[in-house]
Amino acid sequence: MTVNHKIGGILLNIIVRSETIDDYHQIAQIHAMAFSNSSGMEEAALVSLHRNRRQHDPDLSLVAVHENQIIGHVLFHPRKVMVGGHGHKAVILAPIAVQPEYQNSGIGRKLIEEGLERAEMKGYAFSILLGHPSYYPRFGYQTNMFGICGIKIMLNESKEAANIVERKATCNDLGKLSDLWDQWFDDVDLAMYPGDDLTDWLSPDKKINCSVFEINNKFAGYVRYEKDQPENVKMFLATDKHAAQEILKTLSMQIDNQNAIFLPVHPESNKTIEVFQNEGQTDCKTWEAAMIRVLDKENKQIADYCNEVKNHQRLPGLLSWPVEFDVC
């Protein structure tokens, strides 16, 4: 797609196209230059990590080009997301960057519009992002569509755990991880399936543990959490109530001066109710920056979710960000 833009009174010819391998270096430079509130290298790393996923689609990684130089980039990455008990094709918009001297000139708008059009043509039902609520609604994004949702569980005072082993997840665990994720999240709105590859379950951030737990040599669960602050849990899976209790005991040994932990499990999930039996304190709220843009206007499940959350008739879903976002 070719568009014309005026910048400083000068008419520029801008081409918006799919990225190619030869663009990777320039795209990284754009992200490094574009962000004043960070180094920009987090976003550059995020793009590279998403290219490693088997679901990466170069047609949804778009660049804006002027005189053979890339001046802007946006990435939409495909995901399977649950809504209404069914898996839907969705895309996350992140990140987007425009070279500083071309910012506020409509380049970002053209990249987003072209990306959304392509995603819709490819059959994606909706797009998700975290961003400025004063900017993205102009593209049809609705604010306050998700945020934080989980339960607060009191930690057992006992420091003695069963015969439990914590270790790194391996390829041999993938089938069990996938099955256990389904048990916890197949009935949870906005639950984002991690994927079928080992790299979908291991964080690129060395400060994050992605651990499988075994009790008496049997698979008992998986937890993704911060090493230095183990109370910050990003994903929690346990096979049953006993496994959950023992895993929490193990985590509690690493936590100082805290008698409770927040778990990112949906309070209305059947598995959450089975394991915790409504003993946790529910904490669910939306963020203005958490947005959804419906692409498939015929998808009633997505439309119902957005309308009911907006009208406070439904608890917001639980979106656990993929491991790639640990770098941001």
UniProtKB/TrEMBL annotation:
Signal peptide per UniProt: none
Keywords tagged on the record: Transferase
Keyword S-adenosyl-L-methionine: no
Alphabetized SUPFAM superfamilies for the sequence: Acyl-CoA N-acyltransferases (Nat) (SSF55729)
GO biological process: aminoglycoside antibiotic catabolic process
Segments forming domain N-acetyltransferase: 14-162
Highest rank taxon of the organism: Bacteria
One GO molecular-function entry: aminoglycoside N-acetyltransferase activity
A Pfam family hit: Acetyltransf_9
Name of the protein in question: GNAT family N-acetyltransferase
Species whose genome carries this gene: Exobacillus caeni
